[in-house]
Design a protein that fits this description.
The protein is of the alpha/beta class. The chain contains 18 helices and 13 strands.
Length: 436
């Protein structure tokens, strides 16, 4: 009998034990599943929007706001934080540089002037964007703008808006005197002198002669039109002391010496020259596209037109390419979110909206003949001819220093402190020392 009960108890015990084990396993599986589910649900419901930061000039930051709001409506998981900087582009560059030098940039996106790209890329501050756009996608932008975002064969900056220097001229003056718009340096001098002698104009030609970056930009066009070059980025060869460069300086000196340009032109930046042209007694002006809309509201409205810059006989003209674009900081914690911002802002729809609201020049070729844009800015098809014929400032990391050298010696030549040949030889020698 004792053996019977012993066997029975043993059987019940093991049965209950197996049931307990089964319940424990069921509970364990349920517990693990719950943890895994919570691990997925909690971040999904509690995740905060990613913040992508950018620094830009205060004046343009306000103009970006409608696009920023539109982007955030379409991408609620990404917030754009715009830090306001001074309106001076040089100060913006300095702020970016200082932040990068500290090691941890607070900016995910880098809104860059075209001349900053080589410096920032060479320093290792920018993400390589080469694989993010196909050749067909890049071909939708102006070639010069794309080239301006490259460094050593890699893309670091996607164009947002473009710019280019051009020649403005008084159509009424030329028609009254029976002239076609000038093509060469000689044409411009002869037409200016004749119209001044006839009393139609006080000044023939105004340009940016002040010692600042605008002087270098203006000179790039005259240098291109003379068949010369500043610095070859591939070989570091300097061409400032070649005959073509000296002739380019001589042309500009001639406009001052013959009083085709006012003596004060050596102190003029963009706005001084614009106002002088709009006052009604100047035939020709070298300036940027922004002048067109302003001049169209002045006393010379309907009396002027634009064309590509002049050049030496037998040479070709070139418009100094300007403009701004977007890159991604190398140490950004949110590179994919930053790229979504770049895709949105560089899109055709965004650029169309921005151009219509601000009058800035697009970087996408198709927009120069876009019906909505042409309806508002009828000169844009002509503007395309100008910006497609572009001339880049040297895409080298030491560009700022090279530009400072050129500015100083050009200013010395234009103010009579040095002759053209001596100034250019000195500029070339100092530039070669810089590049070494």
């Amino acid at each position: 009998m004792s053996e019977f009960w012993s066997n029975l108890l043993s059987s019940k015990f093991f049965c209950q034990l197996n049931q307990v084990k089964s319940k424990i396993w069921q509970f364990a599986i349920l517990f693990i599943a719950t943890i895994l589910l919570l691990g997925w649900l909690v971040p999904a419901f509690s995740q905060q929007p990613v913040t992508v930061s950018i620094l830009m000039r205060a004046d343009e930051g306000a103009q970006w706001q409608p696009l920023v709001e539109k982007f955030q409506q379409q991408h609620p998981q990404i917030k754009i934080k715009v830090f306001a900087a001074p309106s001076d582009s040089n100060q913006v560059e300095d702020l970016y540089t200082s932040t990068f030098l500290l090691g941890e940039s607070v900016y995910d996106l880098v809104y860059m002037d075209i001349i900053w790209t080589p410096k920032f890329a060479a320093a290792g501050w920018l993400e390589d964007l080469s694989g993010r756009l196909s050749a067909d996608e890049l071909n939708e932008f102006l070639e010069g703008d794309v080239n301006g975002g490259m460094y050593q064969g890699k893309l670091y900056r996607v164009p947002f808006r473009s710019d280019g220097g051009m020649l403005y001229y008084r159509t009424d003056f030329l028609q009254q005197a029976g002239y076609e718009p000038p093509e060469t340096f000689t044409d411009l001098i002869e037409i200016s002198q004749d119209l001044q002698q006839q009393g139609l104009a006080d000044w023939g030609y105004v340009w940016q002669g002040k010692q600042y970056e605008g002087l270098s930009a203006m000179f790039v066009e005259i240098l291109e039109g003379s068949g010369g070059f500043w610095i070859d980025p591939d070989t570091s060869e300097v061409g400032l002391d070649r005959s073509e460069a000296i002739e380019a300086v001589e042309f500009l000196r001639t406009t001052i010496d013959k009083r085709i340009s006012p003596p004060g032109v050596t102190t003029y930046a963009e706005e001084e020259t614009r106002r002088l042209f709009e006052n009604g007694k100047t035939v020709f002006l070298r300036n940027w596209p922004y002048v067109y809309s302003l001049a169209s509201e002045s006393q010379i409205a309907g009396k002027f037109a634009i064309k590509p810059m002049i050049h030496q006989s037998g040479k070709t003209s070139g418009a100094c390419l300007g403009g701004w674009g977007l890159g991604i900081a190398k140490n950004s914690k949110h590179p994919e979110a930053a790229w979504k911002v770049i895709e949105f802002f560089s899109s055709e729809a965004s650029q169309r909206q921005y151009v219509l609201e601000t009058g800035y020049v697009p970087s996408r070729k198709a927009l120069f003949t876009d019906p909505q844009i042409v309806a508002k800015y009828s000169y844009y098809p002509q503007l395309l001819e100008v910006v497609q014929n572009s001339a880049l400032r040297p895409p080298i990391p030491q560009y700022s220093q090279a530009s400072d050298i050129l500015q100083r010696y050009l200013s010395a030549a234009f103010t009579g402190k040095m002759n053209s040949e001596s100034a250019m030889k000195a500029a070339a020698a100092e530039t070669r020392r810089l590049l070494k």
